[in-house]
Write a structure and sequence with these properties.
The chain is of the alpha/beta class. It has 17 helices and 16 strands. The strands form three sheets. Strands 3-4-2-1-5-6-7-8 form an eight-stranded mixed sheet, with helices on both faces. Strands 11-10-9-12-13-14 form a six-stranded parallel sheet, sandwiched between helices. A hairpin with a 3-residue loop joins β15 and β16.
């Protein structure tokens, strides 16, 4: 079997650990024992502490970190300037490609497709685009009016509804090129494939679905205390606090539960803006909420073990690492039935689902009353909590583990290398 020179390309922000950050680090750890694959991680980073390019030999892979330019989001639309930046990136990393055969660029940020294509022109490498998200759904946090329009167009049932065209979904040329230019596409969910087929139309015909997976950090699954409805239940929310993560709907549901006489507390682990903390104090002074902010994973693991219920209220999500982590720790989960979350979990078997609601005027929202009802069900029913905990741990072991993700990904590399 011939060796493969693998180049992982991504972009990150020092202020936040994203799902893509988690994926790349997880994939690299999973490739440790694949002898035929030589890993090079070319990491473009927005970080005040990274002033100059830095190359590191870390155990079994090479990491090359490059500072991103200021106002990168401004130049991304300027083909001339983005090409100039790409030329500099390749000038810095050229030695990693020279004299190498069977090169594959595995792209984890759509905005870097122009860089990947530029390198392919010079090295004859292959390109894989990894679709970690459905870009237009990110508009929920930045352009609610456009999001609502696209949501209604995509999921509306009107017989005479306007047929979607790819142009209205795509934010920039880089996004469309990310679908058409690669030699292979990896999606993390089937709903991402549906998006390409129903909305984009023009895309690489070599598509594979590879769900995310993580290494087992919960080697000794602890049994949670059998609480009664009179006890206080500690619930956990993990992730960046943004509108699309639905935290305000969780707080409203908690208020309804508390009004029914149940004792609940919420721990929030994730980056949040100071304005949210102020809003929390003003609008929900009656709730017990502990905002921990961004915390190390070792501290987060303790929360996964000690909390009673995990709550996910996202209004757009693909293969959520938070959901996988909760499953790994056997945490009883309440989740919105949206996108990849609806695909990952089976209602009443390994999670309790909450429906979302949509109107052209009010947009997409979480059914707060249903979320409150599901939370009260779990509080009242210890057997239901045990069943969900057991089954969601089984889901992780059978479908969401690191070995399965790595094997499927390496299979894509090998097939592409044979072309």
């Amino acid at each position: 079997m011939s060796n493969i020179n693998l180049y992982l390309f991504d972009m990150s922000q020092a202020s936040n650990t994203s799902g893509v950050d988690r994926y790349v680090n997880t994939l690299i750890s999973g490739l440790r024992d694949i002898a035929e694959i030589y890993v090079h991680w070319i990491h473009l980073r927005n970080d005040d502490m990274l002033l100059f390019p830095k190359e590191e030999k870390i155990d079994y892979y090479i990491k090359y970190s490059i500072p991103m330019p200021q106002l990168y989001n401004t130049i991304i639309a300027e083909r001339f300037w983005i090409r100039k930046y790409n030329e500099q990136v390749y000038r810095l990393t050229k030695h990693l490609f020279e004299g190498k055969e069977n090169c594959i660029i595995h792209l984890h940020t759509l905005n870097l497709i122009d860089l990947a294509v530029y390198i392919r022109e010079l090295t004859s490498c292959k390109i894989i685009t990894h679709l970690h998200c459905i870009p237009w759904k990110g508009l929920y946090d930045s352009n609610k009016k456009l999001f609502n329009k696209l949501y209604e167009l995509t999921y509306g049932n009107a017989e005479n509804a306007e047929k979607p065209t790819s142009e209205i979904y795509v934010n920039n040329n880089c996004e469309m090129q990310s679908y058409t230019a690669p030699d292979a596409l990896i999606c993390v969910t089937n709903c991402a494939v549906d998006f390409l087929k129903s909305c984009i139309h023009d895309y690489s015909d070599n598509i594979r679905v590879v769900p995310n997976g993580i290494n087992d950090s919960n080697l000794l699954v602890k049994t949670r205390k059998d609480k009664t409805p009179k006890d206080k239940f500690h619930c956990l929310f993990v992730g960046v606090v943004s509108e699309s993560k639905g935290i305000m709907y969780i707080l409203k549901a908690f208020r309804l539960v508390q009004q029914q006489g149940f004792k609940v507390s919420l721990t929030i682990a994730g980056t949040c803006h100071p304005q949210f903390r102020n809003k929390l104090k003003l609008d929900f002074p009656d709730l017990e909420v502990d905002v921990k902010g961004r915390i190390p994973f070792d501290e987060l693991k303790e929360l996964y073990v000690t909390c009673d219920i995990g709550i996910i209220a996202s209004l757009q999500e693909q293969a959520s690492y938070v959901a996988i982590e909760m499953a790994m720790f056997g945490l009883p989960i309440i989740t919105t039935a949206i996108d990849g979350l609806d695909e990952m979990f089976t209602d009443e078997v390994n999670a309790l689902k909450v429906q979302t609601k949509f109107s052209p005027v009010l947009g997409l929202s979480v059914d707060v009353e249903m979320m409150a009802a599901q939370l009260m069900r779990l509080i009242r029913d210890v057997n239901l909590r045990k069943i969900l905990s057991k089954n969601v741990r089984k889901l992780y072991e059978e479908k969401l583990n690191l070995e399965l993700m790595v094997n499927r990904t390496v299979e894509v590399y090998r097939e592409l290398n044979q072309r």
